TrEMBL record:
The lineage of its organism: Bacteria, Pseudomonadati, Bacteroidota, Cytophagia, Cytophagales. Keywords: Membrane, Transmembrane, Transmembrane helix. This is RND transporter. It comes from Arcticibacterium luteifluviistationis. The chain crosses the membrane at residues 47-66.
């Protein structure tokens, strides 16, 4: 359980920052899934930067649950 604390903390801070008016990753995902019209290379980098903590959290959860079974 200890192994998911750091990825969870990073998700709640870097992954969701800035928090207002909506989390940054939510806006980037809407833009990307809406066709990515007008997205520049920096926007793709920003999507990867804010999305990586969630990939890390999924990986950590996977490792925890695979070890238990």
């Amino acid at each position: 359980m200890k192994s998911i604390l750091m990825p969870l903390l990073v998700c709640l801070t870097l992954g969701l920052a800035p928090f207002t008016p909506e989390p940054h990753i939510v806006g980037k995902l809407k833009w990307f899934l809406g066709g990515a019209s007008g997205m520049m290379p920096m926007d793709y980098f920003d999507l990867i930067l804010h999305g990586f903590p969630f990939v890390w959290l999924i990986w950590a959860l996977f490792k925890v649950f695979v070890k238990k079974n």
